[in-house]
Specification:
- This protein is mostly helical.
- It has 3 domains: 55 residues, no CATH class; 112 residues, no CATH class; 123 residues, hpI Integrase, Chain A (Orthogonal Bundle).
- 50% of the residues lie in helices and 9% in strands.
- A hairpin with a 4-residue loop joins β4 and β5.
- α9 runs antiparallel to α11 and α9 packs across α13.
- It is elongated, with a radius of gyration of 29 Å.
- The termini are far apart.
């Protein structure tokens, strides 16, 4: 090991070999003592990298790990474009050649702080002033699009036998998120939505309310996934997990008449305007798209005057009502395809009234029992 001055640079350079690999570069230091300390730190990094790489038998550069993760499983995520964007963001931030062994807790904290300082993106062109006026991304977005993505890269590398001596403390890095509220649809609100709904969108929104499925799961529902004979809808849900949903009488009543409207997808809409570029003919039916469903929902919500209700709240409404009717958390967990029962526990508040009734019933029973004892005495 040695450090040396290069006439072309004001800084000392380092150059050493470890485990048959050469490591060199600028120390960014102007004194020999500082340069030697820098080189010693680089040697420790090199040792950690070689040790982890030898176990994994593959490159631990963040770009290489991300590429292997993508080919192995990430490309099959329920929203692969979002995953690809999130991985690319991390690679760009750290630099494609940055080894995971050099990303410790402080480096990960710096990344989280950087992501927290970014603003929500909106479609369309805006002035710089308008861009600066956009809100900062939420804590939930930082956790989901950055911290957990980085954690996934580490987990994948560890599955390849890599060992990290300075892995970030993920619990320490995760930002606090407000507890997700559970919003139910009131009877008068449901009536207002029905009044504001276009007839061709009626079956889609009826199915959303009757199934509790997510927006994307409903929009992309295909006929090949619907089995009227077995009374089941079988498909891949979030995280590419197999989801089986029963075709109840209500669901059958919604889906059965839609057969023949489209050869592949269950839900369609009628084009109000023609569009030569998109090949749309006015009055013809076309498969409903994700963005089309969102736009229809936004128009319908505005016309109905419905406030403080998101599309995802249809799912909350379904879960709350199902739990109130069944009193069975495990059943609701299965119906909503929750991997963790903790996700289902957010609906437990609907049982508060039942608990209160049970407690009052127990109190009355005890009062009667005491009264009987007193009479006997």
């Amino acid at each position: 090991m040695s450090v040396y001055r290069d006439k072309r640079s004001p800084y000392y350079q380092y150059d050493f070999q470890h485990a048959g690999n050469r490591f060199s570069g600028s120390t960014k230091c102007t004194t020999r003592r500082d340069a030697e300390r820098f080189e010693a730190a680089e040697l420790e990094k090199a040792k950690a990298l070689m040790k982890a790489t030898a176990r994994a038998k593959a490159s631990l550069a963040i770009d290489d790990v991300a590429a292997r993760l993508w080919n192995h499983s990430a490309q099959y995520d329920s929203e692969p474009k979002a995953t690809e964007t999130n991985l690319a963001r991390l690679v760009e931030y750290f630099g494609p050649s940055k080894p995971l062994t050099e990303i410790d807790n402080q480096a990960a904290k710096d990344m989280v702080a950087w992501r927290r300082g970014q603003r929500v993106k909106r479609r369309g062109k805006r002035t710089k002033e308008a861009e600066r006026a956009l809100p900062l991304v939420s804590n939930a977005t930082v956790n989901r699009s950055a911290t957990k993505v980085l954690q996934r890269l580490f987990a994948f590398a560890k599955s390849e036998k890599a060992v990290f001596e300075n892995e970030p403390d993920w619990e320490d890095l995760l930002l606090d998120e407000p507890e997700e509220r559970v919003r139910e649809l009131k009877l008068e609100e449901a009536d207002a939505l029905d009044q504001a709904m276009r007839d061709d969108y009626g079956p889609f929104f009826d199915f959303v309310r009757a199934s509790g499925m997510r927006l994307k799961e409903c929009v992309t529902l295909r006929w090949e996934e619907v089995d009227f004979g077995a009374k089941q809808i079988v498909r891949l849900g979030k995280g590419r997990r197999r989801v089986v949903f029963p075709i109840t009488a209500a669901v059958r009543e919604i889906l059965y008449p839609l057969q023949g409207q489209h050869p592949e997808f269950c839900f369609t809409y009628v084009a109000v305007y023609g569009n030569k570029k998109l090949g749309r003919v006015r009055g013809q039916r076309y498969a409903l798209s994700y963005n089309g469903a969102k736009s229809a929902w936004q128009r319908m919500r505005a016309l109905s005057g419905l406030a403080n209700f998101r599309f995802h709240d249809f799912r909350h409404d379904f879960g709350s009502k199902l739990l109130r009717d069944s009193g069975n958390l495990k059943l609701v967990q299965k119906a909503l395809n929750h991997r963790d029962i903790k996700s289902t526990l957010r609906y437990a508040h609907v049982l508060d009234e039942d608990v209160a009734v049970a407690v009052e019933r127990l109190a009355k029973s005890r009062r009667k029992s005491r009264s009987g004892i007193k009479k006997a005495i």
